[in-house]
């Protein structure tokens, strides 16, 4: 797909995600050809769709489609997904109206799951986390430009600038890791990319919360929504801490570190 067509697709997807979410967004994405995009242009469709989910704060069950494609299982199945702490969850819209600690996502805990390969799914959640981090940075940057103290915007204060800069560096580092090809070590590359994206989102949550101050703690502010979402997505398919430890244990057992990128 050429750049102009991709830009038009992104604009259409963004408008759709800003106006709907959940099961309705699943239907809208199906009408926009999500299944065909996933099959024919997987490398560009997954980063685009999941990044936009994070930026807009919407959600859809498209992660199931990515998991099933990798596993070669029937479309429409609902796979159990590993969650932080050795637990398992499934995407269940029947739970969407109930009070949940899972960041507004309709995830239901189950007793156990299967053993699926998850490199593509981890990359997808990584892009979702990066999108959420971008959304938090946008909110904090705008607040810093608008909020005036001592006669000037707080964006001019060095401490505020440092926090925004550190957030941007973390996000762009995660995006670079997610963009690595990883043909030789797909599982390890995806594991490290998901860990980097989770750490970037948590860094964004911490720094952007400090930039916004008290207003960022309120449930009415959009930052609150993105922080909750980032905390849940970090735990989905393994938290950044768990995945980092798993990668380290694997490298120690192997006795060497493979080259993941040509610099």
From TrEMBL:
InterPro entries per the UniProt record, alphabetical: AcylCo_DH-like_C, AcylCo_DH/oxidase_C, Glutaryl-CoA_DH_mitochondrial
Residue ranges of every copy of the Acyl-CoA dehydrogenase/oxidase C-terminal domain listed in the record: 119-240
A biological-process GO annotation: fatty-acyl-CoA biosynthetic process
Pfam families to which the protein is assigned, alphabetical: Acyl-CoA_dh_1 (PF00441)
Keywords annotated in UniProt: Flavoprotein, Oxidoreductase, Transit peptide
The UniProt record lists the keyword Ion transport: no
The UniProt record lists the keyword Transferase: no
MF (Gene Ontology): fatty-acyl-CoA binding; flavin adenine dinucleotide binding; glutaryl-CoA dehydrogenase activity
Domain of life: Bacteria
Protein name (database record): Acyl-CoA dehydrogenase
UniProt organism field: Mycolicibacterium hippocampi
Source organism phylogeny: Bacteria, Bacillati, Actinomycetota, Actinomycetes, Mycobacteriales
């Amino acid at each position: 797909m050429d750049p102009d067509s991709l830009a038009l697709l992104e604009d259409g997807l963004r408008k759709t995600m800003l106006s709907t979410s959940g099961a309705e967004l699943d239907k809208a994405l199906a009408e926009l050809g999500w299944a065909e995009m996933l099959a024919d242009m997987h490398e560009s469709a997954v980063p685009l769709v999941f990044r936009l989910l994070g930026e807009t704060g919407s959600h859809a069950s498209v992660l199931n489609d990515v998991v099933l494609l990798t596993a070669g299982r029937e479309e429409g199945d609902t796979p159990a997904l590993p969650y932080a702490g050795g637990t398992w969850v499934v995407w269940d819209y029947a739970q969407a109206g109930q009070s949940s600690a899972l960041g507004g996502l309709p995830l239901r805990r189950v007793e156990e799951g299967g053993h699926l390969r998850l490199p593509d799914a981890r990359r997808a959640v990584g892009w979702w986390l990066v999108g959420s981090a971008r959304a938090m940075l946008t909110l904090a940057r705008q607040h810093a430009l608008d909020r005036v103290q001592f006669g000037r915007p707080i964006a001019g204060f060095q401490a505020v600038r440092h926090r925004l800069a550190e957030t941007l560096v973390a996000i762009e580092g995660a995006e670079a890791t997610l963009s690595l090809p990883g043909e030789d070590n797909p599982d390890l590359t995806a594991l490290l990319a998901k860990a980097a994206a989770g750490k970037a989102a948590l860094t964004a949550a911490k720094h952007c919360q400090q930039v916004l101050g008290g207003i960022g703690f309120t449930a009415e502010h959009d930052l609150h929504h993105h922080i909750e979402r980032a905390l849940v997505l970090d735990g989905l398919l393994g938290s950044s801490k768990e995945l980092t430890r798993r990668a380290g244990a694997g490298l120690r057992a192997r006795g060497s570190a493979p080259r993941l990128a040509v610099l």
